[in-house]
Amino acid sequence: MTERHWSADGKLHFGVGIEDTFVPQEIPGYRSLDEYELTQHYDRWQEDLALAAESGAELIRWGVPWYRLEPRPGEFDWTWLDQVVEEMQRLGLRCIVDLVHYGTPLWLEDSFLDPSYPERVASYARAVAERYAGIWDDFTPLNEPVINAVWAGEIGMWPPALHGQDGFLKVAVALARGIVRTQQSIAEVNPAARFVHVDAAFLWDGESGPIPLEVLRERRFLPLDLIMGRVDEKHPLRGYLAAHGVHAAELAWFLANPVVPDLIGVNYYPAFSTQRFLAGETYEPVEAGVDGLRLVLGEYWDRYGIPLAVTETSRAGEPELRAEWLLESLDAVDALRAEGIPIAAYTWFPFLTIVDWLYRTGSTPADEWFVHMGLVDLVRDSSGVLRRHRTGAFTAFQAIARPAAG
């Protein structure tokens, strides 16, 4: 008899996530951004995993630094990753493996637009899945494809540094193709693998913006619609796609190669997942609280009918505010579950203090870019070591997650 997958057992599983953005390319005015390096996770990973287990988390969202694992095409260095996988298994942490969290290896000269990208990312994913089959069986092929396409294709902050709607769509289509090939390749070597597609939740406040609101409200779903083969002649963005250079042959490929995730992960932050348009092309984040969380989870369920997970949520500020959001957001999740929406997991992300992405364009030390929104705060001591400090939010999470895991 086949064992029921954890996401289908009817329980709410608790997780934490280690921020794992990797944008290693350095060019004038842009520093390398590797969150593991900046938070000393490469050196203190055992402590971090032990803290995750201590928190009561059953799940951990954790990313493979592809650019380090495969420093040259087809050449893998498994030394460090083998140790991490073994320790996760020893601690009883089930990893939802983040295969791509924004960046590509340095040898992919045009990043996501390199013609070989879809097959290169699929080959890398296949190697990881084959090596750790039976230990790592839950995969996110690529985190937040819309955010990735915005930063790499629309506003030019990450490679390949395109701008505008044409750039956004070029990157978005390439990412989606890579996701399809990744899922196909993993399934070939590990039939037990399950797939968690992770989307950034977007809400828009206001009546107008530089891009029509009806386009913005639809394009947040575009990568998922593409990979699932839902972008046909009747799709509401078909005209937008054609107007910005996406050819019918590209869309036909997705219709012929659909893949379906087992779980849809929704990332939602109460203070900046909702954006309000101001004058011109500017906008600002606004507070949307639990109402926004309820809204986006309902929208994904209504649109796809696939079980959900909260794969990222947290709040910056004092630990008391973080603990308050923990309780408020969990109340909302419990209410939606009671209404019949199958939400399988709740993940506090990030688990540790992170370094703001704008560090990449700055020149001051990483400490000046710290954002404290985790359950554990990082504080640098006089010797330069980033000490891990459990906060009151850690204690609050632990009080909820431990009994649930038991």
> Might you state the CATH topology name?
TIM Barrel
Q: What's the CATH architecture name?
A: Alpha-Beta Barrel
Envelope shape: globular
How many E-type strands?
17
What does the model show?
Strand 12 (308-313), helix 13 (319-338) and strand 13 (343-348) form a beta-alpha-beta unit. The longest helix has 26 residues, at 164-189. By secondary structure, this protein is an alpha/beta fold. It is globular. The two termini are 24 Å apart. The mean pLDDT is 95. The strands form five sheets. It has an eight-stranded parallel beta barrel with strand order 1-4-5-6-7-9-12-13, surrounded by four helices. Strands 8-10-11 form a three-stranded mixed beta sheet, with helices on one face. The protein has a two-stranded antiparallel ribbon with strand order 2-3. It is 40% helix and 17% strand.
